[in-house]
Amino acid sequence: MKSGIELEHLDRSTRPQDDLFRFVNGTWLDTTEIPADRARFGTFDLLREESTARVRDLIEAAAADTSGGAGSPKRQVGDLYASFMDTDRIEELGLVPLQAMLADVATIDSVETLAAGLGRLQRVGVDGLLHQWVGPDERSPEDYIVYLEQGGIGLPDESYYRDEKYAEIRAAYVAHIERLLGLAGIPDAADKASRIMALETRLAASHWDNVTNRDAIKTYNAHTFDEVRARAPQFPWETYVSEMGAPSGSFAKVVVRQPSFVTALGEAAADVDVADWQAWLTWHVLSRFAGLLPEAFVEEDFDFFGRTLSGQPDNKERWKRGVAVVEGAIGEAVGRLYAEKWFPPAAKERMQELVANLVEAFRRSFSSLEWMGEETRAQAIDKLDRFTPKIGYPDVWRDYSSIEIDPADLVGNVTRANAFEHDRNLAKIGRPIDRTEWFMLPQTVNAYYMPSMNEIVFPAAILQPPFFDLEADDAVNYGGIGAVIGHELGHGFDDQGSRYDGSGALSDWWTAADRERFDALSKRLIEQFDTYTPAGLDPSHTVNGGLTVGENIGDLGGLQIGYSAYRIATKATGMPEIDGFTGPQRFFIGWAQVWKGKSREAEAIRLLAVDPHAPQDLRGNAVRNVTEFHEAFEVKPGDGMWLDEDERVRIF
């Protein structure tokens, strides 16, 4: 049995007791350059590269297959990809594909026509003032409801509009807006760019910060449609909803995640000159579709959002961007082809065994946690018993046959796919919850936990080395995908997931005393990560412990429960030494090699502001909170990874 350790990546000059992440990944870090078309690079990116290449083969095979009739999944996939790769046609058309939308925006002369334009554009994929989605009602998870999220800005986060450290990016953003407007032949581009920035700055000032936005209770604000109108009476809500084609009654009840932003939106609608709104919406149409336009627009869009924001020198090859367009529009049609070719039944069986051991490890943990009382313990076990694992790919595939895909009409293909998805989601209102639906594609290298459905989802593409290897010993598999399963399960019991009960409803099922003890542990973790700086950055750039606390709880839970599950799995067989490492050592090495990666400086700084995950090196070294890690490698006081026992945070 092979160990599953990437031995060639080890840095033997570094002791694991001083820096596990560096010991496991150091040679790779020293010998690997971040590709020019990447802002960061690591395990996830390597697997995404492989997945993208596989998808490309499937797409190109579909494009070459003339046996499928018009509207068949293979023909749709092939024709959409062909429309993106036909650069001659794209250059020939220029801005013609956007003319109808831009002409629509040009007619805006009042708040009423602004609301109408926002509604029509929302349907085809231009999020304006509000981002919108449909999901289970978090207070009544057997019913669907519309969620409204603050929007209106083009920079990554509200802090970019106010924090002095982003002053240069703000200046570059205004210059970028001016250039893109100029490319489109919009007159007075410089003046309009300044006015657009002023409007977005006003909207950003009413945005909730990203730590507050993590709060499941604060962001659940159910409103009737009349109550939404009362919050922002200046905005013509009926027109907005009608023009987006929303079915009757679909907005009868909505969740307004940031009510104060909606109030500010109404005030801005009344106060801001309509010409500024028109310029702002023109910019957002151009920005939304720039990647589908002639090369001058593509390059200008990438120059700001790629080079300036993330430090990425080169754009991705066109075929990779074409794959992304197909996946974004009709992704499950590709996913079905991917799953058929690349996900063997044996992988699903092994994963089911892993999940069962992780669930049992959680059950045992709940029975012995000192901070969890009996009443909360019973509810936690009930929630654990009711969760649903989804592995590999959906049982029911989405039907895209009603979308017209024309190999000569790229922008039209994308807007029609956006309209299909918009209509599909709003049509859920009033229907039973579809528990077969997936919110990731099988070819996506990731996983998620959805609290309102109490489910964990593991797409096929993540179920490969170094996360999961059918031929490898259990240790690395449990340190990799096992800990990731534990991480996702742990989200059901983290600072926000724990606010949802076993049915998926927001419910205060913890006793006050248990919540207080849990919050105290979370606070210690926040304070710990607040002191950390990712490798290679100036110490002034620290992790936001409040933003990352949920993912950090997930990582610790994944490690602690994953290790317990590994012990369960090997109780009968034992833990042999392989490649010079004991079973427990290989478990923690498996964890650290999953987070192998590096970032460009600009991207590392950007991620500190917006990413709820800690940087990769700090995730790999989160093991310093785990006593079993100290025991496995005999870590001593004075070692770099040593953490005093009373400073270690153990939640599960």
With strands numbered from the N-terminus, the spatial order across the biggest sheet is: 2-3-5-4
- Named at the architecture level, the CATH assignment of the domain at 346-387 and 454-652 is 3-Layer(aba) Sandwich
- Residue runs with pLDDT of under 50 for 5 or more positions: none
CATH topology of the domain at 346-387 and 454-652: Collagenase (Catalytic Domain)
Q: Distance between the terminal alpha carbons, to the nearest Å?
A: 31 Å
Q: What is the helix fraction of residues, given as a range?
A: 40-55%
Supply the helix-strand structural class. Answer: alpha/beta
H/I helix tally:
24
Shape: globular
Q: Class of the domain at 346-387 and 454-652 in CATH?
A: Alpha Beta
User: If you average the pLDDT, what whole number results?
Assistant: 95
